[in-house]
Amino acid sequence: MLRPIIYRLIPRLTTGLVLALLWDRFFNAEKLFSMVERAFFVLGFVFFAMAWVNYLKLDGVRIHFLNRKKKKESRHKMKFPVDFTEEPPADSLDENDETIAAMISNIAAGFCFLLPSVFCFLFLPR
């Protein structure tokens, strides 16, 4: 269960850092605000909101337009040759475990962005 959490955490962290750098480059051109205080704070709350949505999904709440299921196609359209590429991998997680892994990685990413922001806000002089 640790591997799927790490596999989901690393892209979240890199995406958050890219968004924070883009905010600092384009919206904070005059350098009026600190990137760590403002952008990281917002990104931390965005990741916590995503974790909350994952928690609601575990509790059974479904958002109807985000939960479109793909139509199941026939497993094998031809009788031969047998192709196992459409089979699920043997080490895949079920839907509940995937949601738990996404929730934990969102919480970890939220803490990674929110803690430096709160630290800079409270302890660094202005």
What this model shows, in words?
With 126 residues, the protein is an all-alpha fold. It has one domain. It is 63% helix and 0% strand. Helix 1 packs antiparallel against helix 2 and helix 2 runs antiparallel to helix 3. The protein is elongated. The protein starts with a helix and ends with a helix. The mean pLDDT is 84.
In percent, how much strand structure appears in the residues? under 5%
**Low-confidence sequence ranges:** none
Please give the number of β-strands.
0
What helical percentage do the residues reach?
55-70%
Tally of domains: 1
Order of helices and strands: HHH
Secondary-structure content class: mainly alpha
Q: What is the mean predicted local confidence, pLDDT? A: 84
List keywords for this structure.
126 residues, 3 helices
Which helices and strands, and how do they pair?
Elements: H1 2-27, H2 35-59, H3 95-123
Helix pairs in contact: 1-2, 1-3, 2-3
In short:
This protein has 126 residues and is mainly α. The chain contains three helices and no strands. Helix 1 packs antiparallel against helix 2 and helix 1 packs across helix 3.
